[in-house]
Amino acid sequence: MEDQEQKEAYRKKTEAQIEEWNARIDQLRAQAKKKEADARIDLDRKADEMAARRDDLKNRLNELKSSSGQAWSEMKGGVEKAVSDLRTAWEKARKSFE
Q1: pLDDT (mean) for 47-59
Q2: pTM here?
Q3: Which of 25, 27, 67, 95 is least enclosed by beta carbons within 10 angstroms?
């Protein structure tokens, strides 16, 4: 049962991170609305990229939910990479509106 508890805790943590990314994507879109046309297009593109990475993270998390044992350990690495990719996309976008 310990593995199941660990898996559930990890799932909840990752879902909370997804909610944070949702807020950041919304923030980026709000910033884009304040910018001139060229900057707005760039920020919208970055927000779209972040949303795609967030969706990838959600998909990986759903796959992780149904996995067990060794597969769970392997899939966890994919989730961690998706989180990292999303964080990198956010950092690029954040620099655009500072």
Answers
A1: 87
A2: 0.62
A3: 95
